[in-house]
Amino acid sequence: MTVAALDVSTFAFTEAAPAKVNLYLHVTGRRADGYHLLDSLVVFAGAGDVLHYQPGPEPLNLQITGRFGRVLDAAATGADNLVLRAAHALQGLRAGQAQGGTLVLEKKLPVASGIGGGSADAAAALRLLDRAWNVQASRTDLLALAQTLGADVPVCLLSQTMRMEGIGENLTPAAHLPECGMVLVNCGQAVSTPEVFRRRDGAFLPRAALPESWADIADVVAFLKQQGNSLEDAACAVCPPVGHVLADIGGQEGCLLARMSGSGATCFGLFATPQAARQAADRLEDVHPAWWVWGGGLV
Ligand SMILES: C[C@@](CO)(OP(=O)(O)O)[C@H](O)COP(=O)(O)OP(=O)(O)OC[C@H]1O[C@@H](n2ccc(N)nc2=O)[C@H](O)[C@@H]1O
Ligand SMILES: Nc1ncnc2c1ncn2[C@@H]1O[C@H](COP(=O)(O)OP(=O)(O)O)[C@@H](O)[C@H]1O
């Protein structure tokens, strides 16, 4: 249900759900069940959905607003929504903790776009409701719950720079990036993750030799240029506009690196400063008003 009338500024609890960005993503192998093993450096952008919660006597319900709320309505409504699935999973962790109230999800991130919007929403719901319901679940319990909700939910629960391996369950802290800017661009075409994995070909890539610290953003970019996104070619085949998006980001003044995130179609550009990224985003938005474009800093 998309509702515009609720005044979320009066809601007691708010939680950000930042976009996940895979700075590099190597498919390193394949499990017996067909899932692909990954090695990825994951960061979180200042862009994101926002989740609000007001406890109340009514049964727990979710309303969705925002630019992409309507898209999500068609794709995942009611109890299937990752926010409600996360809420119910958390209730299951502590019998007797069930509470009612209204959740409002401001859906600002494009759906099925490689930046983990649904995973970020689920993770935000776990953080928010753990606090609101005073569940006080341990980090281990929350991470285990997160894993049952999706491969990217554990990293989104932490929402900090991490190296992600396995299919998302192996997380190790990674050095924070030096101050830099990021542009995110999505052409508006949803991309199917299973199809992109199915179309991927080529050799498995090795695990990257990730440094323990960065001197500056040039150091980060030099490292990232030695890596790649193993799913980029497949995503370009499924969704040819990805190639144009990459060229347009890469052609922006000050762009240090342009690459696709996750299984696409969202692509990112790295810049020296958040201001340079915002300026590039403004220019891209002028030329492509139908695209979703964001520019700013990292979390
Ligand atoms: C590629 C990544 C990288 O962060 O990001 P997104 O593109 O989703 O943002 C994730 O690993 C996405 O993981 P997840 O969110 O679980 O993918 P799902 O949509 O549930 O997976 C759909 C299907 O893709 C294939 N799949 C997915 C993940 C994986 N490591 N190997 C796979 O082979 C499987 O066929 C799976 O059934
Ligand atoms: N709250 C939610 N936000 C986004 N997608 C959701 C949500 N709940 C369920 N979904 C479903 O999860 C799928 C993956 O969406 P999303 O996380 O945006 O993809 P990606 O990780 O590729 O960016 C979508 O097709 C959508 O149907």
Automatic annotation (TrEMBL):
ATP binds at P110, V111, A112, S113, G114, I115, G116, G117, G118, S119, A120. It catalyses: 4-CDP-2-C-methyl-D-erythritol + ATP = 4-CDP-2-C-methyl-D-erythritol 2-phosphate + ADP + H(+). Keywords: ATP-binding, Isoprene biosynthesis, Kinase, Nucleotide-binding, Transferase. SUPFAM superfamilies: GHMP Kinase, C-terminal domain, Ribosomal protein S5 domain 2-like. The active site is at K20, D152. It comes from the Bacteria. InterPro entries: GHMP_kinase_C_dom (IPR013750), GHMP_kinase_C_sf (IPR036554), GHMP_kinase_N_dom (IPR006204), IspE (IPR004424), Ribosomal_Su5_D2-typ_SF (IPR020568), Ribsml_uS5_D2-typ_fold_subgr (IPR014721). Its EC number is 2.7.1.148. Pfam families: GHMP_kinases_C (PF08544), GHMP_kinases_N (PF00288). Residues 231-286 form the GHMP kinase C-terminal domain. Pathway: Isoprenoid biosynthesis; isopentenyl diphosphate biosynthesis via DXP pathway; isopentenyl diphosphate from 1-deoxy-D-xylulose 5-phosphate: step 3/6. Residues 81-159 form the GHMP kinase N-terminal domain. It is an enzyme of class 2 (transferase). GO terms for molecular function: 4-(cytidine 5'-diphospho)-2-C-methyl-D-erythritol kinase activity. The keyword Chloroplast does not apply. Belongs to the GHMP kinase family. IspE subfamily. Catalyzes the phosphorylation of the position 2 hydroxy group of 4-diphosphocytidyl-2C-methyl-D-erythritol. HAMAP family: IspE (MF_00061). This is 4-diphosphocytidyl-2-C-methyl-D-erythritol kinase. The lineage of its organism: Bacteria, Pseudomonadati, Pseudomonadota, Alphaproteobacteria, Acetobacterales.
